[in-house]
Amino acid sequence: MEELFKISGPTVTLLIRYFLIAGIPFLILYMLWPTKFSKNKIQERLAQNKDFMREFAHSIKTNLILGGIIAVIVFTPLRAYTQIYLDAAAYPSWWMPVSVLLAVLVHDTYFYWMHRTLHHPALYKATHLMHHKSTNPTPLASFSFNAIESVTESLIFPIVVLLIPMHPIALVSFGVLSTIVNVYGHLGFEVAPKWLRHSFLFEIVNTSVHHNLHHEKFNGNYGYYFRIWDRLMGTENPDYVRQYDVIQEQRFGSGVELKIAEECKM
User: Fold this and answer.
1) Using one digit for the tens of pLDDT, what is the confidence trace for 182-220?
2) Out of 27, 95, 111, 206, which could bridge 91 as a Cys pair, Cβ 3.0 to 4.6 Å?
3) Is residue 227 part of a domain?
């Protein structure tokens, strides 16, 4: 019984993480106070209850699959091939945040190319179509994949622990960060601060508008954390910045309209 509890630990942790990080924004934005945040809404139309149920059910399945893969890696002889370490003193104190950053960079690269591959016509229907049934995604859609894509998405865990020495604290931090970014991308509402638009970070990081455009248009904007791969490979939706500014004007009013007008003339 003790062994069963230990093996099920990753799955239980992932489900709790999903319920909290995806569930709380969903309750606030879609159930309790949707009109209060109407200016932040990216698409005018609203998802339906059937969409919520589909997204929730498939996200639960994905977390079960991911939890199973983590358990197999951590609690079987495969653990010997990983670089997971338990003694925090084994590496300098600065290594833990650096290892999280490296994991993010590896994840962003893996996700971009995996995601773009799943959009190939020969693979799309059998893999990624389920996720794109959410043309106007909600936080519940953050893990809404069919079984095949759930596995491909989950492979980032063994890739990271095989490549990067990581302490369990760093792994948990990476998991929480990746889930927050994932939920933000599927939020359906733009909540980025006003200052982001005219900072250097805007040229680098993804926003909710960025990934929402991917769901609305089905192609382009394949990145997870950053715009870098999309910009390098020419796959970023050319309408992204204008669309972001439309939401900015919708949220903050004067001061943004002129910027939109100038870009429309170009």
Assistant:
1) 999 999 999 999 999 999 999 999 999 999 999 999 999
2) 95
3) no
* Bridge partners, residue 189, by sequence: 41
User: How far from 132 is each of 35, 36, 74, 105, 112, CA to CA, in Å?
Assistant: 25, 27, 32, 25, 16
Domain of residue 179, residue span: 2-188
Contacts of 245 (CB under 8 A, 6+ apart): 197, 256, 259, 260, 263
Is residue 102 a contact partner of residue 120, using CB atoms and an 8 Å limit?
no
Q: Is 244 left (phi over 0), alpha (psi -120 to 50) or beta?
A: alpha
Q: How many domains does the chain have?
A: 1
The whole-angstrom separation of Cα 228 and Cα 193 is 21
Residue 18 inside a domain? The answer is yes
The pair of structure tokens assigned to 117 is 């591959």
- Mapped onto helix, strand or coil, the DSSP state of residue 189 is strand
Is the residue at 232 inside a domain?
A: no
